[in-house]
Write a structure and sequence with these properties.
The complex is a heterodimer of chains A (249) and B (141). Chain A is mainly alpha-helical. Chain A contains eleven helices and three strands. A three-stranded mixed β-sheet of chain A has the order 1-2-3. In chain A, a hairpin with a 4-residue loop joins strand 1 and strand 2. Chain A starts with 7 loop residues before the first helix and ends with a strand. Chain B is an all-alpha fold and 141 residues long. Chain B is built from six helices and no strands. In chain B, helix 1 runs antiparallel to helix 6. The mean pLDDT of chain B is 91. Classes of the chains: A mainly alpha (249), B mainly alpha (141). At the A-B interface, helix 11 and strand 3 of A face helix 4, helix 5 and helix 6 of B.
């Protein structure tokens, strides 16, 4: 089968994707050109052009632009793959709550797609929605006997520790949102995330790896601490800790 | 005090440095992280303002580490001198405690040089914050 040639909008998505690792260093001229070319491509391939808008939102660190592109495209069509595409855009900016919402809709539209279900659990976990992640994990077990979502144990441990600590999930959701939003504000990409749970101490940590120098990590983490203490009344870092660390090879 | 947190931290640093030439390098890294935690814990404890200090029973009981952490968290939220330093310590100490528990108890889980590096860096930050907080309260007290 001869592959179909890419449309202009698809080429633009590929170009924007190639620029994502250098987010924050893209000159204004390039962004203007991409916007112009997306507009030109929209008449021919409307849906893909809106997807390109979403990707451009990632490149420009703009959650609002991603949301706007998503709302616009939904006026034309709706499909599981579109929800997956936009969930990925939100995820890249650490908007895990929104990403998990969209991924769950995608999963409902394509219930046999286990990858979508797996990602729903993962995004829910990183949003701090442990109860939702647990439910998705149980659905996964039913749909795919003998296989669990990779984070099933992490989800169980975190729920155990939070219950033991008496910490509401809403606090964790707030903590995670503040931590990821701060990175968007500072235009610092994260590379990895991982939870660590100490069931004995009823303590859970979310470590967010960022690829900047140690001094900047320390500075960002300290500023994050100020925000968490200022914005969350019942913030107790010994029970739930979220923060930044250097990349672990 | 017959030994200071800074002296315990010096031992942690020495253990960390000896790892390079040691055959059982991982034990040195684990011990360095463990000592670093205790240096930081004692420094933080010393810095807690008198009115927030855990009572003697809590301080000597098996929950002594928890009581210091709770004191730091109250300090971090309240209108006390040195609150910014308290906030940094209240966040750094649990992070360091996780590493220390890994170092001392999870013997089958690899403990890497980077883990020890983070432990020492974090402990140093806590000790610095504790000294700053004491200086601030000394200046205003």
């Amino acid at each position: 089968m001869i592959p179909a040639p890419k449309t202009k909008a698809e080429e633009l998505i590929a170009e924007i994707a190639s620029l994502l690792p250098r987010r924050g260093q893209i000159d204004a001229f390039t962004v203007r050109r991409l916007k112009r070319e997306i507009e030109q491509a929209r008449a021919v391939d409307t849906v893909t052009a809106y997807r390109a808008d979403g990707m451009l939102g990632v490149l420009e660190w703009s959650v609002l632009d991603i949301e706007s592109a998503f709302n616009s495209v939904m006026q034309f069509t709706s499909s599981a793959s579109l929800y997956v595409n936009f969930a990925a855009c939100f995820q890249l900016l650490g908007q895990y709550f929104r990403a998990s919402e969209l991924m769950m809709i995608a999963s409902d539209l394509e219930p046999t797609n286990l990858t979508t279900l797996r990602k729903s659990a993962h995004y829910s976990l990183l949003a701090g929605r442990f109860d939702v992640a647990q439910k998705i994990s149980e659905v996964f077990d039913v749909r795919s006997p003998g296989e669990s979502v990779p984070s099933a144990e992490v989800i169980r441990d975190a729920i155990f520790a939070l219950n033991k600590a008496g910490l509401p999930t809403s606090t964790v959701i707030k903590c995670n949102r503040i931590a990821f939003d701060f990175l968007v504000e500072k235009k610092v990409p994260f590379t990895q995330t991982r939870y660590k749970t100490d069931k004995e101490d009823a303590s859970t940590m979310l470590l967010i790896e960022i690829g900047v120098n140690e001094d900047l990590i320390t500075l960002l983490d300290r500023d994050l601490g100020e925000r968490l203490f200022d914005q969350i009344e019942d913030y107790r870092p010994s029970l739930y800790w979220v923060g930044y660390i250097g990349e672990v090879n | 005090m017959a030994v200071t947190p800074s002296q315990i931290f010096s031992l942690a640093t020495a253990l960390h440095l000896r790892e390079v030439e040691a055959k059982d390098a991982e034990s040195y890294l684990r011990s360095a992280a463990s000592r670093a935690y205790y240096a930081a814990y004692h420094a933080a404890n010393d810095a807690v303002p008198e009115q927030l200090q855990p009572n003697e029973a809590d301080r000597r009981g098996k929950e002594s580490h928890v009581s210091v952490q709770v004191a730091l968290e109250i300090w971090a939220k309240g209108a006390y001198q040195g609150r910014s330093e308290a906030r940094a310590m209240a966040r750094d100490l649990p992070k360091l405690k996780h590493i220390r528990k890994h170092a001392d108890y999870l013997l089958l889980s690899e403990f890497r040089r980077s883990d020890a590096d983070v432990a020492l860096t974090t402990a140093r930050a806590i000790i610095n914050s504790a000294e700053n907080a004491k200086r601030i309260s000394g200046e205003t007290g």
